[in-house]
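User: Here's a chain of 820 residues. Predict its fold as tokens.
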Amino acid sequence: MSSAQVRKISQKCETEVPNYGLKVRLNHTYPEDRSQDFIPSIKQIWAMLPLILRYIWYYIVHRIRGKSIVMDYVKTLRAQQIYGVPIGGIGCGTIGRGFRGEFCRFQLRPGLYEYSTVDANQFIVTVKDGHHETIFHSLLSTFPMKSLKSWESSIDGSECFYTGLYPRSWTEFDLSRYGIMLTCRQVSPIIPHNYKDSSLPCSVFVWDIKNICDEDRTVTIAFTFKNGIGNKSKDRSSTCSSKAFSLGESEGVVLYHTIDKMQCSYVLSAKANPDIDISKCLYFDPNSSGIEPWIQLKNNGCFDKITDKNYGQVFGEMACGIAAKGLVHPNNCLSTEMALVWDMPTVQFPNKQKKYSRYYTKYFGNENAGLRITRYAFENYREWEDGIYRWQGAILEDGELPDWYKSALFNESYFVSDGGTIWVTLDDEDAKKLPKSDPRIEFGKFALLEGHEYKMYNTYDVHFYASFAFVPNWPLLQSVLQYDMRDAIFTEIPDKVKMLYDGSMVERKVPNTVPHDIGDPGEEPFILLNSYPIHDVSHWRDLNSKFVLQVFRDAFTAGLNERSVQYLNDMYDACYAVMHKSEEFDIDGDGLIENTGSPDQTFDTWVMTGSSAYCGGLWLAALFAMTKISDALQKTKDNEKFQKLLDKGKASFERKLWNGRCYNFDCSDVECRSIMADQLCGQWYLRSSGFAYEVFPQDRVKTSLKTIYENNVQSFCNGRMGAVNGFIDGAVDKFTIQSEEVWTGVTYSLAASMLQEGMWSEGFNTAGGMYKSMTDRFGLAFQTPEALYATKCYRAVGYMRALSIWSMQLAINELKKTKN
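Assistant: Prediction complete.
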């Protein structure tokens, strides 16, 4: 076989519809529609009543003053059971796609979402027979329309199939009654270790048209798009214009507009091809019936020829389009490539304290980059697909892995781009202040939201879990985030803010503490840290340990070399400072920190009293990490100090918390009996960093995991919903709301812990039951919530913590190495 033949077969494998992913028909409905209307018990409400009353007042005041509300518990989002793979790269804004073909959920304003489906954003097909008569004309979407009344969908959703495997999707349209089979392959540039291309605000749509009848067919694929983000008030306040272009091998239309006073352009394009005729529409009214462009396409298979390449200033909404028409002979195929680019190079947050350039501008500039990105996308998308296939192929072809997991690993990764992510360059002034070894000089600043509804960037107690997606795939994004967090540790913001939990006035950012987050996208992130308004996070018991453990994991999984030792050296002062601060939390001097009897960690309604399995375990793991870090940096005195603390703390941990079956939740009188799903969080991190039982004895670890599996997993919802956070006295722990929740990210990390111990079936059963329920029953694909309840409800859609699924893959890789 020739090399050309091998390459052709390889390309086919890379682009054909995979066996895994979200697979639904275009008329699919999910069997169970859940909501966020969870009603706590009277006991739970009573415990939180002061917080609830303060929150109501906070909400009213912020609404009246027009200020950002970081967590809106009044107007919670109802998950729409519509989503497929979103489009766009990392940190450049994203546009959601529904599996029925719609464009929805815009996140072009950094960190702020518009849950809108825009009727004017469509693909349209026109099929003509051998006599040039139109035999089929339809939208290529089955999502119901509210405007553009002349536009119709005539496709049979039951005969059309969607496959979504992030960052690509395939939609197969069975138009065989008209002699045509049509497939759209959507490709976004999400490629591990390829930072330039992964930052691009674009997607390519490859249309494969197959004529399966015995006469010619002329097929047109049209693509239309309007200005804005589906927010009527903001879209109407924009001045818009458009122009036609031809550049190299691409032709199309540029739609210029503003989004919240930030300049943006949409570029719709088709790749020029001798077999394809491309026509352009520079303007139609998206609020009209849409009859003119619709009839042009239906009658002629193209838009009317334009007489002027520019369409003047329109204040308000406007739409445009392109159409690609080609002749397909019997039993032949024709492909046409289209692209959408959104160029919004300079962004700022509502406080307008600073302007930022998105990272892609480093390569494509701040002026009129859209056309250059379009050309680049057409020239390189096949290389993107090659990179995506190399990333996914070995996992998809691994016969030992369950099918659901192959879908879950990549589809949960949607949050890497569609997590409100922002990736910007450093300006020259900021770059000059940094040493040459600082990765931010080259890779800028990076942040992602805690969740679509929880608008806080780089929420660190949660990123502790989510970071597992970045370390193997985009480690330098994890690195720049860590350098920002290191600097934030030493930052002080003395402004007083009121905490909703107890009404206390506290310093916004206390020095020598890890911040909860780096800010609210509705305010001024990167500058105004700690937008979380509920607790004084300077007293949280998990944040400081989590910083040390991430530094440790990042360096030791990479292997100690010149770069990782430099990283440890750069982070050491911050690690030492936060560990020294955390020593204050060891009230009784036994080497183990104590909780305060208030929610002082990531489970921020679940009170821990005295020493606890969760925070105590993280503390011990962090002490061990410090012994290894100080040893690597040859800091002998520090090493001795941390080793002594560790030895003392380990003895206290075992004495206070081990009960023979698992570790006690805490040292309270009653809640101590709760079996906590996340009690081995510290051990999970140590195993993920390449260590074994140096802190937690092997028999304790395995016994605890078996206890958790029997109770929190198998005894909850017949083992079909993951691991409930708390289980006490043979039932779900209803001490607080969070103790009776299943946290998606915790379930994945727990499953990883099981895999680390060789508990293969238990690990996959734990995570698989939850994932299959979310995607097959509840319709929560590409909007994974923070929490699920046993019945009817979920909480916080589109949440960061579920990226912890990548710790499962790390555990799988290590298991396979051990076997080999």
